[in-house]
Each structure stands twice: as C-alpha cells, then as structure tokens.
Amino acid sequence: MKQDTILVADDDIFTLTSITSGLSDAGYQVVSAQDGKTAVQLGLLEQPDLALLDIRMPGMTGIEAARELKQRGNISTLFLSAYSDHDVVEVATREGALGYLVKPVNIQQLIPAIETALKRSAELQQLQKKESELLGAISRNREISVAVGIYMQRFAADEQNAFDAIRCFARSKSLKLANLATALVKESASRDDLIEAIFEHSLKTR
C-alpha cells in the first residue's frame, strides 16, 4: 500500500520536529522545511500528497508558498497558524486551503485533519482529471467537425459521407480519427495531398 507523503513547513523547529516525528510514527512519509521557499522547492521535487504549512514564516509566507505549490505542482495545502484571525482564515480559504488548524496541535488532532484533507485532495484531483478529459474530448470533436466540413466543401459531399470517408481512411492507416482530423485542420503543404488521398480511398472502398 502506498504511503502518503506529507510536506511539513514551519519556522519553529520545536513544532516542526514534533509534527514530523508524530507523522512518521503514524506511518506517513514526511519531508520538512523551515521556510516557504524551501517548502516550494521540496514540494515541486518530491510531489507530496499534501502540504502542511505554517502561515507566518519569514521570507515567503505559507500563503505564498501554498499558491506556488498549487499553481506549479497542483499540491493541496492544510494550514497551521498560532492565530485564529478571521482575516487570515479568509485568505487561506480563498487560496484553496483544505483546512486550517490553530497551534499548538497534537498528533491526535492532526491525523484526522490530514486524512480528511487527503481524501478531499484526491477527490479534487479526480474532478480535475475528468474536466481535463472532457475538455480534450470537446476539442477533438471540434477538430473532427472542422475536418468533415473541409472535406464536404472540397468534394461537395454530405456530412455522413464526409465523416465515413475520413473514418475509413483513418482505420486503413491505423490512425486515430482525432489525429487525422488534426492533420486535416492544420494548414500545411501536405494537407491537400492528404485530402485527395482520403477521397481516392473512399472511391476504392465504395
């Protein structure tokens, strides 16, 4: 079973040591940093399942580090702070924090919060994957429609015959329909030859 990796960053060495030790004992893989900049570097290198960041760190704050980790590594964050300030909580929430804990925290409090955050992070990543796949499918379908339109205009074909000709040619060449459509849509010196080849193939297979 895969061990979840947690990135922990806190400028307080006592807190950092206590949390990393407790998480390691609980079975997590842990990478640690004492400042935001190092946390970002480690996060992008190690690709942890979750980042646990103190909000107030010197140099790059936890908020800034979380933003970098999310934008550049799609890494979700659970925040730690010695303050339960409403404005800080609001900023953390706006940056997509999966949770917010006020220090001091003990490991018995921390583990349930981490497990909840890990589950939520996995759900969000699955949603993002599905959204990306959907957008990709829409884009591919759009290119196929454009390719069919190009063929229709070139040979005065109806939509079904144009689609069948392109699909049949793709199968004969062991090409993905979407890849062939991309080649037809893209302006290139060889596009006319490709369209003619599809047309000639359609005549042979009628």
From TrEMBL:
SUPFAM superfamilies: CheY-like. InterPro entries: ANTAR, CheY-like_superfamily, Sig_transdc_resp-reg_antiterm, Sig_transdc_resp-reg_receiver, WalR-like, WH-like_DNA-bd_sf. One of its GO terms (cellular component) is cytosol. Residues 124-185 form the ANTAR domain. The keyword Transcription regulation applies. One of its GO terms (biological process) is regulation of DNA-templated transcription. Residues 5-118 form the Response regulatory domain. The keyword Phosphoprotein applies. Pfam families: ANTAR, Response_reg. GO terms for molecular function: phosphorelay response regulator activity; RNA binding; transcription cis-regulatory region binding. It comes from the Bacteria. Keywords: DNA-binding, Phosphoprotein, Transcription, Transcription regulation, Two-component regulatory system. The modification 4-aspartylphosphate is found at residue 54. This is Two-component system response regulator ZraR.
